Amino acid sequence: MANVFDVIILGGGPAGYVGAIRSAQLGMSTALIEKEKLGGVCVNIGCIPTKALLHSAYIASLLREAKEFGVDAGAVKTDYGVAMQRSRKVSDQNSKGVEYLMKKNKVTVVKGTGVLQPGRKVKVGNDVYEAKKAVLIATGSRVKGLPQIGLEINKTTVISSDEALFLETAPASMAIIGAGAVGMEFANIFHAFGTKVTLIEALPRILPLEDVEASDALAKSYKKRGIEVIAGAKVKKGTVGKDKVTLEVEAGGATQKIEVATVLMAAGRAVNTENIGLADCGVQVTDRGFIKVDQSLQTTAPGYYAIGDVAGPPMLAHKGMREGVTVTEIIAGKKPHAIRYDNVPSVTYCHPEVASIGLTEDQCKERKLDYVAGRFPFSANGRARGTGETEGFVKILRDKKYGEILGAHIVGGHASEIIHELTVARENEYTVEEVELAIHAHPTMSEAVAQAALDSLGRVVDM
Amino acid sequence: MATNVYMEALSPTMEEGRVVKWHKRDGDPVKTGETLAEVETDKAVMDLVARADGVLRQVAAAEGQTVAVGSVVAVIAAPGENVSAPSAPPPPASTGGGKRDAGSEMRDAGGGMREAAGVAVAPADATRVKASPLAKRMAREAGVDLKLLSGSGPGGRVVKRDLEGAAPRAPAPAVAPTVAESHPASQIPHPAPLGIPHPASSGAPYEDVPLTQIRKTIAKRLAASLGPIPHFFLTTEVDMERASEARDALNKQLGDQGAGKVSFNDIIIKATAHALTKHPACNAWFQEDHIRYWHEVHIGMAVAVEDGLITPVIRNAESKSLADIGREAKELAERARNRRLQPNEYTGATFSVSNLGMFDIDQFTAVINPPEAGIIAVGSIVQKPVVVDGQLTPRRRMRITMSCDHRVIDGATGAAFLRTLKQMLENPLAMLL
After folding, report:
1. Domains, chain B, ranges and CATH?
2. CA A145, CA A147: separation in Å to the nearest integer?
3. Residues A303 and A385 in one domain
């Protein structure tokens, strides 16, 4: 029967397509079902195009300051439409790249909307596909609005990142609701393209899941460049007009009215678990809506596995990719290295970048851990001075007795690249001493990591 | 004329040996006295040496294979000599017991064995332990020998989890503390460890690990002890304040001289030896139809080694200085862990000391190592509130439990010895008397 495969994967995002490749590498016949473009949210309307736009924003701000570096770029003009078109090309290239990888690995790609059926089957249109070994659910997540306060996404004045990524021009003003990674990145992008941005966060600080010091550094940086930041704020009501939105925002005991051309909802995501036949197959979900999985990522229905955003937080592409690899290895009968969910790096690609791994200082305190914090500011780093990227710091939290790296937090240029030294260290249980013992090239931003490690040991050199 | 190479009895109790490593290969020239192979006996890894000059031929025991003492494992032929036919019946494979044909099948059997025994066997380079830097640091702090643990990390690497000896902690996601139920936690392919050491996960409900030579011997000898020997136990608590002070003072002096430090174990060995000279009734061997009372004191010192234990002997401990005992104990323990002890270094003790203080054990009983008549089990030194001169003061205290063979030592005899030992530890100067 032509429609029988070892493994069938529902959803071609990062978790699904990486899982498909690994499955094929392990010699299992594999089908990948995707209703839209391959690569999912990440490649098409998430990670990848936003990184392209952030780079445009970075160039704009760089050119505005270029005179100081001896390069007079004159009056800098920006065009969001052009930046957007470029970001679309980047996304398309990546999506085509995934298509190529599917061909290369002989993964059968089925275009269409798949619905799970009992007996490890998936129905796509009138065709039924059957999996001999496993069905992987990798349907991902989508943005969500806040209809309960009148802010349903209408795609014109109240938009989500899905629309923001396709705007032809940058709006004159924008309120961004939610200052997690998505809100922070769009605030950075639109501000650089001339939009008056107000960033609103319900929790007491922006980037609420990061270390307090990272949040403070970013709030300071954003305010300094003219982005209005309102944290600990409650949006009580949204009144949507034809070409404007009025928000009633309560913060610090006072209520203020904010009028903007556009509201960007960046306050969370909903998982795609509806209308895919979960209940018919006996796949249960948790109270918070994620698919219930066991330690091998198997759902409550034998033979059905869940990976990526639907399988639970953190809802990050790289966490889903790892689950795609691990789950297919388990299905193939291998004993893969356990996923360390406490060692998934978290990165926000705004400027300066924020990257972290492990516990925050507050979490160390809550757990009553005996820790020592080591810090090193980029203002004391030669390379950072040279490139004018002196904002931010490296902060390492280490266990007092054994030097285990409990957490690490980087704010600064290229933080997203620098963090991996500490990710590798934590994955392999290196302590701050092994990190410091490795010779770091001079001058580099990464030297700040070694210096922060030294600082935690009470013997920082460069400060 | 070709000379047979036999599996020799390399220790007094050896019945079979496992070829760890061939130093010479088929066709290599060899000289009398040269090491042909390393062989694991019931207690140690020993060298099997050439008894003739010539060329090594017909190696019939693969690395990892166990063969009975007296079996032919190879032949030393004259250069150019044709030895195509085996010059002796092939060695029986000890595990099966039956005789097998020499040649390829023999080697196949050996290869298979090697794989099966892989988990339990000490690597040829027993000094290298795979462990994460964090695990090494934790082990050093806790006084745990990493060689005694089996790692659950990649490639059998010892990681933090193995030292915690408990189920791994719940994941600590940097995100909000949520949806634990949907979270596969941090140990997908690993079953919850039951404690240390635990075998690498295989999905099977149990794992059969063949007995190593040393484990077989431990089993045989300990069963020959607690069963037939009428044990009884005496416990006393010793005040270690003055011994601690004496040790600190000595170590300061030794440190100034650049010499190695004295441990509590060294002091206990010294005091035990000294106390035994005053109580020869406890320094004895039970010999079925007679009791041999020793005039010399040879203290067996229990040392944990990879998958077992061994008791190297400090000879004439009664007449050695504390520094000498310290040096010798350290050196013997290290070679024991590397399985490089000679048979005469772990036999002939007249009394034994077993110390689990470094594992935070308060008190325990040790099994007598026959034919010795006694052993003391030493617990950890703990600060406790004690009444001294009517006042409650914190004192460092240590519990010692003596196991006695009632056929040799009676209750009062053992108690008297233990009292002397206690006095010596509480007043180390008494050893000078």
Report:
1. 3-116 (2.40.50.100), 122-208 (4.10.320.10), 215-432 (3.30.559.10)
2. 6
3. no
pLDDT digits (tens, 9 = 90+) for A50-107: 999 999 999 999 999 999 999 998 999 999 999 999 999 999 999 999 999 999 999 9
Asked if residue A335 and residue A366 are part of one domain, the reply reads: no
Note the pLDDT tens digit of each residue in A84-93: 999 999 999 9
Which range marks the domain in which residue A364 is found? 352-456
A155: left (phi over 0), alpha (psi -120 to 50) or beta: left
Please tell me whether residue B5 adopts helix, strand or coil conformation: strand
Of A295, A316, A341, the residue that ends a domain is: A341
With CB atoms and an 8 Å threshold, state whether A402 touches B188.
Answer: no
Same domain, A13 and A133: yes
Q: Which of A151-165, A177-191, B13-27, B344-358 has the lowest mean pLDDT?
A: B13-27
Whole-prediction pTM: 0.60
Same domain, A26 and A131: yes
CATH at residue A151: 3.50.50.60
Which residue among A218, A241, A267 closes a domain? A267
Residue B140, chain A, CB below 8 Å: the answer is no
- Please report, for the domain that includes residue A377, its CATH number: 3.30.390.30
pLDDT interval class at B293 (50, 70, 90): confident
Please report residues of A whose CB lies closer than 8 A to that of B178.
288, 313
Whole-number CA gyration radius for chain A: 23
CA distance A394 to chain B (A): 17
Question: Which positions of A are annotated as active-site residues?
Answer: 442
A32 and A138 together in one domain: yes
Contacts of B152 in chain A (CB under 8 A): none
The answer to whether the CB atoms of B137 and A403 lie below 8 A apart is yes
Q: Chain A partners of B174 at a C-beta cutoff of 8 Å?
A: 209, 314, 342, 344, 346, 356-360, 363, 407
Judge whether A380 lies within some domain: yes
Q: Nearest residue on chain B to A359, judged by CA atoms?
A: B174
Q: What is the nearest CA distance from A382 to chain B, expressed in angstroms? A: 30
Q: Which of A211, A221, A220 is nearest to A396 (CA)?
A: A211
Tens-digit pLDDT profile for residues B312-335: 999 999 999 888 899 999 999 988
Mean per-residue pLDDT of chain A: 95
Answer yes or no: do A346 and B174 touch at CB < 8 A. Answer: yes
In a domain, A86, yes or no: yes
Angle in degrees, CA A412, A414, A419, rounded to 5: 90
Q: Are residues A21 and A135 located together in one domain of the fold?
A: yes
Q: Do A339 and B134 touch (CB under 8 A)?
A: no
Residue A303 lies in a domain: yes
Whether the CB-CB separation of B425 and B271 falls below 8 Å is answered with yes
Judge whether A259 lies within some domain: yes
Do A314 and B133 count as a contact with CB atoms less than 8 A apart?
Answer: no
Active site residue B406: yes
Mean pLDDT over A389-407 rounds to 96
Q: Are residues A308 and A411 in the same domain?
A: no
Query: How many domains is chain A partitioned into structurally?
Result: 3
Q: Nearest Cβ partner of A336 from B171, B172, B189? A: B189
**Residue A53 and residue A85: Cα distance in Å, rounded?**
10
Band of residue B212 on the pLDDT scale cut at 50, 70, 90: low
Does the distance separating the beta carbons of B154 and A293 come in below 8 Å? no
- Within this chain, do residues A10 and A97 fall inside the same structural domain, yes or no? yes
Q: Read off the tokens for A109.
A: 């790609």
- Asked casually if ipTM beats, i.e. exceeds, 0.90, the reply is no
The burial class, CB within 10 Å (0-12 / 13-18 / 19+), for B368 is buried
**Residue A416, pLDDT score:** 98
